[in-house]
Amino acid sequence: MSAERLARAALARVVEPGDVLVGRWLGEFGAVAVWEALSRRGRALPGASAERWAGWSLRAERAEPAADLARIAELGGRFLCPGDREWPRQLADLGPAAPIGLWVRGPCSLRFVAVRAVALVGARACTDYGSHVTAELATGLAERGWTVVSGAAFGIDGAAHRGALAVSGVTVAVLACGVDVSYPLAHRELLDRIARGGLLVAELAPGDHPTRARFVQRNRVIAALTRGTVVVEAARRSGALNTARHATELGRHLMAVPGPVTSGLSAGAHRLIRAEATLVSSAAEIIELVGEMGELAAPEPVPLVPRDLLAPRAAAVLDALPVEAAASLREVAREACTGEEEARARLGELVALGFVERVGEHWRLPTGSTRHARVVIARAAGGA
């Protein structure tokens, strides 16, 4: 237990999340020096008013970092500091507003699951439409290996977490309280499920309770952890719009889901779409935006060879297959203008590569949406 870790654990108990002044001190003086100045009621560090310094000093009197670290260990969690192997490097984009440290519960590595992560946020008092769309997006993302990040609140947040858990996906809940506090209380079971298969993450020390300001500050962490933020349903004054603003400031992708123009809970999302957000309606569209170049939405059991790499005779046989029906060997050979033995050999290659599947004595294009799309794209690239 290093002095740096103890100091950061203590400061996490004393300082409110997102305090830029303290963030600058950490960069200039280091956590140990800042904590010693506060805990010993020493001379105020530059930029702090007398009242602010006095308030921190009062909080420092009750800080027990060793006890907090013992408490998180009892919960099966850990306290992460910048520089730890599990610390997500993208949090550095927050600059001096980056977290002092993160209290984490769950079996996953925060750094690893945040590599491919998307935030789904929105209204607490969401409609059935918003809840349904959120669950579908979360399920689709999780099935494709993406981490779903949200804030564990009622409404859209809860639907996002449940959607990911429904398909045994990974979901991360960024809290505005300690990771041992069930807030909202009605989500106690949901939070326990997330802690068992995903991660609970908080800047606040164990036992700390949420405030309005802490909800606002946790939004910047949600935005920074992920490659993009999707606002599913939000009114004009929704807290989700705060997360959207952070995503834009951090250079992350900002997306929004359209809803009925008569719904006030879609007004905020529509405003984002008009201004800067990309309209999305499915997990596939989200992944195409935030994923690697050329990444398709559906998972692939095996790599598929692009159309351009096929030998000319194999490409001709592939083009001979109808799009929505199966064909016999004789039909394929006739359309490809080749012999049946040649067609059989090329069909065998195409089956092995995943471009074609066999149904009895017939052959057809795969019915899966991803493979079908791959064939269509390949044909287009080949000028068919």
UniProtKB/TrEMBL annotation:
InterPro entries: DprA, DrpA_SLOG
SUPFAM superfamilies assigned: MCP/YpsA-like
Domain Smf/DprA SLOG, first and last residues per copy: 79-289
Domain of life of the source: Bacteria
Homology family: Belongs to the DprA/Smf family.
Record-linked NCBIfam families: dprA (TIGR00732)
Protein known as: DNA-processing protein DprA
UniProt organism field: Streptomyces chisholmiae
Organismal lineage: Bacteria, Bacillati, Actinomycetota, Actinomycetes, Kitasatosporales
Designated gene of the protein: dprA
